[in-house]
UniProtKB/TrEMBL annotation:
TM region(s), chain numbering: 102-126, 147-175
Protein's UniProt name: DUF4190 domain-containing protein
Keywords: Membrane, Transmembrane, Transmembrane helix
Region: Disordered, residue numbers: 1-61
Compositionally biased intervals (Pro residues): 35-61
Alphabetical list of InterPro entries matching this protein: DUF4190
Biased composition range(s): Polar residues: 11-20
Amino acid sequence: MTNPPPPGNWSDPTWSAQPSSPAPDPTLVAGQPVPAQPGPVDPYAPAPYAPDPYAPDPYAPVDPYAGAKQSAAQPMPGYAPPGYPPQYPGYGYPQPPKTNGMAIAAFVLALIGFTSCITAPIGAILGHVAQKQIRLSGEGGAGMAKAAIIVGWILTGFLVLVIAIYAAAIIYAIATSDNSSSSSY
């Protein structure tokens, strides 16, 4: 319910039924033109403070895997495409190169040379042949061939030393037996 206007055509500041004129702007200076009052508002015009509806949202959550995602049409890396034969080599660790058979034989013969000493030079020679094959083919077993060469030649040196000691012992025995048998008569 509204009250009637006061008599005498004067405005009462306590009167709440009629809006009073706005208070003067304290930032205006006397003598300056008054800024234009806003006109009718276009309901379809964007507000001056509204963000661009086509701009990305700066507060949207960030996906840390955004660059790593693939489309559903592409298969995952490391797997063969569905329906095709495998295009990738076997899974797991890469296989070491095949060991040279000559290197294995040389190593075995060099080790058997500990007991017989006859197979040691054969193992050393086969070790040299195996090293040349490994250099040409790229197979594994270079360490085994080198071990066969070292062990084989060391045992061959011991074999030569033992044969020289036996030969010297035989020669000494023959030389001393001839002197003792001739002086006793």
